[in-house]
Design goal:
By secondary structure, the chain is mainly beta. The chain is built from two helices and 66 strands. A hairpin with a 4-residue loop joins β56 and β57.
Length: 848
Amino acid sequence: MKTLSMKVLSVCLTVVAIAHADPGFRLTSEMLAHFSPRAIGPTSMGGRITELAVVDKSPSTYYVAAASGGVWKTTNNGVTFAPVFDNESTASIGAVAVSQSNPDVVWVGTGEGNARNSVSWGDGVFKSEDGGKTWQHMGLNETRQIGRIVIHPKNPDVVYVAAVGQFWGPNKERGLYKTTDGGKTWTHSIALSENCGVIDIAMHPTQPDTLWAAAYGVRRDRFASNTPEYQFDPDAGLYKTTDGGKNWRKLSKGLPENKMGRIGLTVYPRDPKILYAVIQTERTRSALQGETTSRADEDPATGGIFRSDDGGESWKKSNILCPRPFYYCQIRVDPNDDKTVYVLGVSLHKSTDGGKEFRSNAASSVHPDHHAMWINPNDSNHAILGCDGGLNVTYDNCRTWDFFNNLPIAQFYAVSFDSRKPYWVYGGLQDNGTWGGPTATRFGGVYWYHWIKIWEGDGFYTAVDPTDWTTVYAESQNGGLGRVNLESGAGVSIRPTGDQGRRFNWSTPFIISPHNPRTLYVGSNFMHRSVNRGDRWQTISEDLTRGAPASISTLDESPVRPGILWAGTDDGNLWLSKNGGQEWTDLTDKLPNVSRERWISRVTASPHNVEHAFVAVDRHRNNDYKPYLLKTTDYGETWTNITGDLPANGSVYVVRQHPQNENLLFVGTEIGLYVSTDGGEHYERVRGGFPTVPVHDLQINTAESELVIATHGRGIYIMDIGPLPYLTESIKESSVHLFEQKRITVMRPMRGNQWQGPRQVRFDNPSNSAAIWYYVGKELAEGASIAIRDALGESYMTATSETKPGLYRIAWNHRGGAGRRAAGNGDYVVELKSGDVALVKKVTVTTE
């Protein structure tokens, strides 16, 4: 252990005594089944779409694959979408394909094939035989990332799967797989090496035993670098088979002879001898990867656009265009005109002369970063386009585009909330800036237009001044920190500048001090503090990493005592300062049973005890997908593993301890949200309509007794946590227990336009019904009754309670109906009787 000393301003230390809680209460899945998180969107900005699968004969029916938001289906041309992949083992989707001969057969390849720094991973392939109603896992678990699936045009049992392979390490499961029995068995049709897989496939439309495959070797580093560290492999290139994959040969004539990277393929269906490819090589110029221009260049070695007129036997380069290939590398040919070609990238590039010249404004009115495109084979004017900003459609050959604002697939990194009532939430999104929106409105719910954008760039952490909700802090990638005034709309950059050698994480952590709203902390590879809301910064540590390119990935200050600072880095270091940054203690080697090759994804100071803290470790970038969660009770000198029974395939991103109950933990993982009421010995997964989705951040609003959930793929959810803070050891032996009741807040309605149609998605306000929670510890032989009365004893509801042990809720609709009296504003009494036991609590009804 080592200590770093810094001369900094001293801070006042305050000791707060916290009563020690009891050992905890074991939650069960049956108890947690009563909790249903409520989605509030947004849909204003969409999210990353990776693939489209359209029923060609009925193009109003199609499937949309989201990068980390599952699969969505429409049967009415996008007027409405329904999620059809919510309960499977992963939400990361790389490919989706529908059988054109039997559209009820749908295949999904999990694990996004784009090797960007925030990519999630998959769990093999799935098949549906009923149009997405139910799914069956069909294996290939260890492929991890899948780039494309193609289905035989007449036999839906014949399927090919392009497996890129895991992005953070070698694996022999890379390559191309084929099944001829609907996925019961698989043949590893292309198996090149543990480093080179297959990213794309094209099938001859009338001779389906003829296929072309693009082999690709890619590897990400263990940091959040913008570009993969390994992109070029000697086995990468184009391969062709004419016998259904029994034999493959590498194509070479006219193609680059140097190492190739990612390749995208497309075949012209009216004359399958015509193919196009967009090819990256080790000499592809970085400026052109950024799409500054496109022009002719006959040298194959520099990569670009290639065309074949003889089924891939020979190729001719037509253009140097190759936009940011590891992220895009998608090319499409108009199914009715072989001279019209589209290349997807930051812009949508279009050529009408066979790829000799491109213009980059084919989709200038929509969000950039394009990954998926379908062109109607029966009408070239009609096309669907998927990008980082959602879904768009054109009916006039790309002249105008319509945006679908009804897909809640936003990828949040972090979330915060303000002090208003109803309160607003703010969060940063992948490639979509920072947005804020209300948790309820007077219009009966939250619509897309209630959300506002407050900061540009990729969005990450946010924070709201607890004494002034008009002041919001937000950031863009790599430390682009700003302060926004919501009243004026003005924003000012407050990014720390000056010192050389500062390295800011892709998702730079920062916080407002829980003790002084003018004090901010932000991490680069150093820790920085401002005492005047970011106008000036002071560096309060030495470099806390092991060296470039590492940076601080998480930080926190104890809510119990000012100046107790924690910091974790993306190269696995963990630090503590007990005096506001004057001295730092290295705790890196104190963490037990977890490799030092790791990313400290979250350090959270306990709100109960100054010596307590939690650390979440994420090692998926080290090819280890297991969860790691630890707790200290002695300033980090010793640690207890509280990973408990969290599932083995979901890295932990965030942990929060409830301020009222030290045994109540909320944990966000790659595959969902988990709750423990016994301090981490046992966890239960939150379901209740909550999908399989990465949970990247959590915040607890104690005033409203709600959990704010930031998902990386399905937007923001709010969960009423009801009695969870009160589930303690002391009630276990109770025959029956009636919990404290949450205030009912009714939004006074205003008239809205109810005739906007179903495409205008509305997310529900909180229920106006009171949730009356009670616990039965021992079977009640005499039964029990629940009654709600006013101060004069007038009855508003009576009900019979459950008698078997468990946690239960009864909904009281204070508005009355079905013979029940309506209740106005005021206090009411909830009484639970069982034999000689009579329990009473108050419930209050208010109107805002």
